[in-house]
Structure formats: C-alpha cells, structure tokens
Amino acid sequence: RCRFHSTVSRVCTLRLSAARSTSFVVDEVSNIIKEAIESAIGGNAYQHSKVNQWTTSVVEQSLSQLTKLGKPFKYIVTCVIMQKNGAGLHTASSCFWDNSSDGTCTVRWENKTMYCIVSAFGLAI
C-alpha cells in the first residue's frame, strides 16, 4: 500500500513538474521582471533623459530571461516609467487567447521619484 502511494505521489509530482516546465508561471515571470527593473533602474532618481534607456533595458532584459526559460511561448513585454508628481495613469490591455495555456503578469515597482509598470504576456506556441 505504501509503495502504491509512493508511486502515485511520484507520478503526480512528475506531471506537475512537466506542466510547470511548459506553463506560464506568474511567480517565475514576476521575479524575472523585478530583477530586470532593479538591474536597469536600481536606486536611480527619475531623469527624463534616461527613461528611454531604462524602458528599453527593462524590456530587453525581461525578454532575454524569459526566452532562456525555454518554454513554448511567444512573449510580449511592455514598460512604462512615470515620474511621481501626482498625475494619474490609467492603462488597459486586451488579448484574445487561450485561458488554459496563455498568461500575463504585471509588476508595479516604485521608488521615491518614479513608478515603473511592466506587463508580460506569454502566448503558447
């Protein structure tokens, strides 16, 4: 009886591992995005002249690390950096996709002088 339970547990674990290796895992994507933001912006204060460089770096680093996961997805990554000055920002996105295989993750990061909002979409191939 224990042997059967052990086998079932192992099979379930293997299936979960296999599913995880080909699925869009929000926590995994979120960590990649956070690392890209920290690497590109870090402790910098908002500088209008640097925003284009920072957004490009965040998007490229995120895409590079997501691609290295080797999962069967096409990725779309967007990045908005906005100075903290009391202005409002409203965004929306829409995508026709398969809820069972595709996914999205949005990370909102901030420091004393700016906000950085990054969204990643994973569309199964």
TrEMBL record:
Query: Which keywords label this protein?
Result: Cytoplasm, Cytoskeleton, Dynein, Microtubule, Motor protein
Record's InterPro entries?
Tctex-1-like, Tctex-1-like_sf
Give a yes or no for keyword Cytoplasm in this entry: yes
Pfam families noted in UniProt: Tctex-1
Compartments where located: Cytoplasm, Cytoskeleton
Q: Which GO terms describe its cellular component?
A: dynein complex; microtubule
Chief localization class? cytoplasm
Can you tell me which family this protein belongs to? Belongs to the dynein light chain Tctex-type family.
- Name this polypeptide is given: Dynein light chain Tctex-type 1
Q: Identify the coding gene.
A: DYNLT1
